[in-house]
Design brief:
heterodimer; A: about 280 residues; ABC transporter involved in vitamin B12 uptake, BtuC; globular; B: about 260 residues; alpha/beta; Rossmann fold; six-stranded mixed β-sheet; disordered C terminus
């Protein structure tokens, strides 16, 4: 059953998968609860522009994705100031810029197969440098989320009251934007730019159906994310499927199953109550 | 008497429209001050200026005896906004987590809560009779219960002064009465100073010891013990109003009026 771990490329894939599966829901919880899922999409599209810039310039594509995503995240905040009552305009402007730039730069990429691998992910083709970068950046994200746990919770639940309680809201939001950009750009290797936002959302959406507190939601979404990633890698290896898409589809199936289970169990409970009272 | 809030010659407006013109007022320790007025008269704006969420064009505000520009003791000021109960109901936070969040300045930046903080949360919830709901999800509570949790979130820091912006909007009459009675009890028993913006004339008349009205003619102070006549209300709102305060003006379950 663990045959696949005898190959070095699969060992790397599982190591990267574990790290990315751990960090995406940590960021995803705040993204979902702040209703910023569209920001995930915008940053993943600008990451693609960074990937193409990295491929065109001959530098590392993931490094390009990190630089572009961080710049875009800060850009969203700047554009938002120009349209304070229409914050979604800022996201649409940055997303359009990312798509446009990626489209133009892709014309200069010599090997189009390498660009395609970033659209849907290519976790099994990860290099040593990329593995090192993912390890370092994942540790930064995990430590930041642990240290800023209560600050992120309060800013997500009620920003106005958090400010009055003394939470440095602007600084926390700034750090969170940077962490989101880093998480998305290093995750493009696993599931690709087109489906990264689903990795941010799916484990959190599933966990929210089962958890009884914010803390439980964070822990459960990390566990579910690791489960989706490992089972996706395992199934894709033996069924010869694309790992990124498989991971996301397992997440979708899990969410549908949880929703169905909740609905059935609530109907059964209602039926029991009705029989008892009759 | 100890003045917790002092506002002098305050002016504020958006773009070219002046909303608050030359407002001056004070709030003494132990006051239960009601702020009433028509929509758009600047009631919530006045609260936001006193909370420094907005900056005035001119004028002076002091909180707990200190100029608001240098004021740092925000944990001693509680605030329950109009939006409090309209929070995202599917947010997976327990009552305990929400109340504990407000202990930020006590716990400290980058630090985790200790046993003493858990006890402070329990006592605050006990004060609003919500201690048996500590592990419940906020979204599973009724509007009245949620409002009591938000009150506990404010009380956990032992504030000297609390601001409330239409705290009973969107909750049923029974829960509304419970919230008013709870506030009156905290004001009476703990000496907590309360400043509340509301449209609920009957309840605020029953519980406040001072009432200020924002209208077209600026700020008017009215003594709640004199009651509200149709003429007074018409003067405040700037147009003729038929006044029906049926059933209001007193509260069976609390002793606020007798105590003051």
């Amino acid at each position: 059953m663990l045959d696949i771990l005898q190959y070095e490329f699969m060992q790397k894939a599982f190591a990267v998968g574990l790290l990315i599966a751990a960090i995406t829901p940590c960021i995803g919880v705040v993204v979902v609860l702040k209703r910023l899922s569209m920001m995930g999409d915008a940053l993943s599209h600008t990451s693609l522009a960074g990937v193409t810039a990295g491929l065109v310039s001959g530098l590392n594509p993931i490094l390009g994705a990190v630089v572009f995503a961080v710049a875009s995240a800060l850009g969203i905040e700047q554009v938002r100031k120009a349209f304070p009552r229409y914050s979604e305009i800022a996201i649409a402007v940055i997303m359009s810029t990312g798509i446009g730039l990626a489209g133009v730069l892709s014309g200069f990429v010599k090997n189009s197969a390498s660009l395609n691998s970033f659209l849907f992910g290519s976790i099994v083709a990860i290099t040593d440098f990329e593995l090192f970068m993912v390890i370092v950046l994942s540790i930064v994200v995990i430590l930041s989320v642990i240290v800023l746990y209560k600050e992120l919770f309060y800013c997500t639940f009620d920003e106005e009251s958090a400010r009055l309680a003394g939470v440095p809201v602007k600084a926390v939001n700034f750090i969170f934007t940077l962490l989101t950009a880093i998480t998305i750009s290093i995750s493009v290797r696993t599931v690709g730019t087109l489906i990264i936002s689903s990795l941010l959302v799916l484990p959190v959406a599933s966990a929210m159906q089962l958890a009884k507190s914010y803390k439980q939601t964070v822990i459960l979404s990390v566990l579910l994310s690791v489960f989706f990633t490992f089972s996706g890698l395992y199934i894709s290896y033996y069924a010869n499927l694309k790992p990124g898409g498989t991971i996301v589809l397992i997440g979708v199936i899990a969410l549908i199953s949880i929703l169905a289970f909740k609905k059935i169990s609530s109907r059964l409970r209602m039926k029991k109550t009705y029989i008892k009272s009759a | 008497m100890d003045k917790l809030i002092e506002v002098r010659n305050l002016n504020f407006g958006y773009s070219d429209k002046l909303i608050l013109r030359d407002i001056s007022l004070y709030v003494n320790r132990g006051d239960f001050l009601g702020i009433i007025g028509a929509n758009g008269s600047g009631k919530s704006t006045l609260l936001k200026l006193m909370l420094r969420t907005l900056t005035p064009i001119s004028g002076h505000i002091s909180l707990l005896g200190q100029n608001i520009k240098d004021f740092k003791r925000w944990s001693k000021i509680g605030y329950i906004s109009q939006k409090a109960t309209s929070f995202n109901g599917s947010f997976p936070a327990t009552v305990e987590e929400v109340v504990q969040a407000n202990l930020f300045s006590d716990i400290g930046l980058f630090k985790y809560p200790k046993k003493i903080h858990k006890e402070m949360v329990y006592h605050a919830l006990e004060r609003v009779e919500m201690h048996n709901y500590a592990k419940r999800l906020m979204g599973n509570l009724s509007g009245g219960q949620q409002q009591r949790v938000f009150l506990a979130r404010v009380l956990v820091n032992s504030p000297e002064l609390i601001f409330l912006d239409e705290p009973t909007s969107g909750i049923d009459a029974r829960s509304e009465e419970a919230v008013y009675c709870l506030l009156a009890r905290l004001n009476h028993e703990l000496g907590l100073t309360v400043v509340m913006v509301t449209h609920d004339l009957g309840a605020i008349m029953a519980h406040s010891n001072r009432l200020i009205c924002l209208g077209e003619n600026g700020l008017l102070e009215h003594d709640p013990s004199h009651g509200l006549t149709r003429d007074v209300v018409t003067q405040i709102y700037g147009y003729d109003i038929n006044l029906h305060l049926s059933g209001s003006g007193h509260c069976k379950n609390c002793t606020r009026k007798e105590g003051k």
